[in-house]
Amino acid sequence: MTIVARRLSRRFGERDAVEGLTFEADRGEVLGLLGPNGAGKTTTMRMLVTTLTPSAGTAQVAGFDVRTSPLRARGRVGYLPEEVPLPREARVCELVRFVADAHGLSRTERQATAGDLLARVGLAGSERRLVGTLSRGQRQRLGLALALLPDPPVVIVDEPTAGLDPEQVAAVRALIRELGERKTVLLSSHQLGEVEALCRRVVVMRAGRRVAFETRDELARRLKTLPRVVVRVEALDRDRLMQLARGLDVEATDGGPAGATLVLRADPNVAPAIASAVIEAGGRLLELRVEEPTLEDLFFQLAGGDRR
Question: How far is the C-alpha of 61 from the C-alpha of 54, rounded, in Å?
């Protein structure tokens, strides 16, 4: 395993920001780190990149202990924090040269790698620009390129697509997906759709503790979260459709005299019976589909969040 955390803890005064956290991630994986604000995600990432020392427990990054070999562990990680601390008066090319020199890259390696990375994050041709003239989204993408410059085996990213437009989001997600094929990527994001698109497994945290570490399907089975069954009909009003669904868990309804839509939480096996009941009642079935539980459904169930 490239990242291994065992009962990792961090205390600030009397408060446990992270308590007894255990998980691991291997090469060829994008692992999601989820939790509401204050759950301990950023503290966890800072311990893994050695900017915070654990109060207890152990963690290894690429085979190096973050407490006993912090410099070696840090040298194997590319880290993109949510707020990228870049000097505004520096030029992009100067930052690239500084980071490359710090990691011992030759001029040839720097030129070959930097040009490709800047192009991949949409900053080709920006080498002479001052960092202070870049937008927040551009600084975020520059931070990602700098984190990847030394080709680290482990990449830790916090909100990597914050402030980006849809085209830039797609490009950064594609890059992370590609990185996940040959590196270990730990991804923290408030965008649950992003985590769902990129991660097979997730660590869910609440109040500093791990409440889940598994795949979405495993979570759904453990939490017994039923799929949604969406029924859309014509020639039946909402009240009549509700009567046909009596005894089932109705999540939402919409419609009027000419037709209606009903969203149920139910076993998918009820779908044929619902279709038959609609037709027997004189309705016309326009749509009947089953939606598996999303990561958002499971996250709110685990983290005790409020959707509003």
Answer: 14
Band of pLDDT at residue 308, cut at 50, 70 and 90: very low
Please give the class, per CATH, of domain 3-222: alpha beta
Sequence spans of domains, the chain: 3-222, 226-292
Query: What are the strands, taking DSSP E only, across 127-258?
Result: 154-158, 184-188, 201-206, 209-215, 228-234, 249-256
Class of domain 226-292: alpha beta
Tell me the two tokens of residue 260. Answer: 């209606």
The overall pTM is greater than 0.70: yes
Q: Closest Cα to residue 156, out of 59, 58, 297?
A: 59
Task: Output 83 or 202, whichever has higher pLDDT.
Answer: 202
Residue with tokens 């030029």: 91
Do residues 73 and 66 lie in contact, with contact meaning Cβ atoms separated by under 8 Å? yes
Euclidean distance between CA atoms 293 and 297, whole angstroms: 6
